Task: structure prediction
Amino acid sequence: MRETYIAATEFCARHNIEISFITSLEETGLIKITTFEEISYIHESHLQELERIVRFYYDLGINLEGIESITHLLQRINQLQDENRVLRNRLRFYESLENTDNYFNLLRDSLQ
Result:
């Protein structure tokens, strides 16, 4: 499967933002830029996150430090939701085993 990238300058032109903003995001570790033949590119998998960061910064007026904090908290929330989902599934599994044991106990008692 072929990976798709968009030139950072094209992204900036579409969103009417400065390339220096993208550079600042890379320097803070919020996004990853790939450079090929002196042109900066953004992988398509990062575009949704980048667009959210642009909205935070330009529409809501949140500075880069605030965006870093928000991004970290959102990632942590996602991790906790995933962990919660795994634990709920595990609990359902054990509850189903308990119900199965109860069924077999009732069946055994009725046969005696």
